[in-house]
Every structure is written in structure tokens, then in C-alpha cells.
Automatic annotation (TrEMBL):
CDD domains per record: AdoMet_MTases
Lineage, top ranks: Bacteria, Bacillati, Actinomycetota, Actinomycetes, Mycobacteriales
Molecular function (Gene Ontology), one example: S-adenosylmethionine-dependent methyltransferase activity
Organism of origin: Mycolicibacterium conceptionense
Keywords of this entry: Methyltransferase, S-adenosyl-L-methionine, Transferase
Domain of life according to the entry: Bacteria
A Pfam family hit: Methyltransf_3
Coiled-coil boundaries: none
Keyword rRNA-binding belongs to the record: no
Name used for this protein in its record: O-methyltransferase MdmC
Length: 185
């Protein structure tokens, strides 16, 4: 399992955002081992639910075990497959989410945010992880697909007519990084 999970501080922030906003339906794009999922599930409480999308079957298996150990498996639906294939199915079944957390392949961040807006409502919150990456995202020399994906997403979120967005830098146990946080209008 790659060591790329959110830090304990970031996990607590996600839980608080879900609780403070009164979120009862949360979408997570990118599960990994389920650490952020556990925090989101705790934030929505026993009557809320989280749908989490994970590409790698092995990661989903580990996440399910962790969700069970944490006592929140009953409020989490883990869906395995490419998120860009799964998101249209969520729309077809009429899912609407109060909060979406995006922590997946950065190259597709723009498309993930577009889906978060579609699957949200006025007042929904969108949180995107890893928007600073030790300053690499804004470095002109950083021209890899991940850095471009984050830059394009930040530009899109900043100019999107239905989003009110802020980028927040963080420093902690995992170094210098940040979140983009948006309110859907």
C-alpha cells in the first residue's frame, strides 16, 4: 500500500467539515486504505452515508477491512472501478452529495470537480487534496501530468460560475501541501 494517505490532521479536518456542514451524504473519489473514508464516515454520523470510489481492487479490500475495524462499514459503500466510469452511474441512480472529497489521480481533477458540481447541490462542499505538493504545482519547471492536472483544476475552480473557491496551504507531518475548498452555488 503506498504511503499517500491523508495525515491525521487532514483526516480530522475532513471529519469536522462533514460535521460542521451537516453533511449526511458524502462522495469520496480515491479510497486507498480508507483512512479519509473513516474520518468522513465519523463526520456524517450514524445516520449519514459515504460512497467511496477506488480503482484498485486490493486497496478497496484493505479499505473494507479498515472500515469494519473502525466500526463504520455500515455507512460506507465502496465501489471498485475507474471513477470516470462510476460517476455517471451515480448520476443515473439519482445520487446527490453534500460534500465531495477528491484525492485520486491528479490528471483527472478537472473532470472530477465537474462531476462533483453535477452531483452536488447549492450549498455542497468540494474538497480537493494535494494542491500545493511542496510548491511543485506552481513551479514552471513542473510540467508533468499531475502538476498540470492540479493547475488546470485550480484555474477551473477559480473561474467556475457555480463555485466559490479557496486554496489553503497546510504544513504538518506530511510536509507542505494543501486543499482546495469550494462551495457550490
Amino acid at each position: 500500500m503506498p504511503a499517500i494517505e491523508v495525515s491525521a490532521q487532514h483526516g480530522k479536518l475532513l471529519s469536522l467539515l462533514a460535521t460542521i456542514s451537516g453533511s449526511t451524504r458524502v462522495l469520496e473519489i480515491g479510497t486507498l486504505a480508507g483512512y479519509s473514508t473513516i474520518n468522513l464516515a465519523r463526520g456524517v454520523g450514524p445516520d449519514g452515508s459515504v460512497v467511496t470510489l477506488e480503482y484498485e481492487p486490493r486497496h478497496a479490500e484493505v479499505a473494507r477491512a479498515n472500515l469494519t475495524r473502525a466500526g463504520v462499514a455500515d455507512r460506507v459503500e465502496v465501489i471498485v472501478g475507474a471513477a470516470l466510469d462510476t460517476l455517471p452511474r451515480l448520476a443515473e441512480r439519482g445520487d446527490v452529495f453534500d460534500l465531495t472529497f477528491i484525492d485520486a489521480d491528479k490528471e483527472n481533477n478537472v473532470r472530477y470537480v465537474e462531476w462533483a458540481v453535477k452531483l452536488g447541490r447549492p450549498g455542497s462542499i468540494i474538497v480537493v487534496d494535494n494542491v500545493t505538493r511542496f510548491g511543485r504545482v506552481l513551479a514552471p519547471a513542473a510540467d508533468d501530468a499531475q502538476a498540470r492536472g492540479v493547475r488546470d483544476m485550480l484555474e477551473m475552480m477559480g473561474s467556475h460560475p457555480r463555485l466559490d473557491t479557496a486554496a489553503i496551504q497546510t504544513v504538518g507531518t506530511k510536509g507542505w501541501d494543501g486543499f482546495a475548498v469550494a462551495l457550490v452555488r
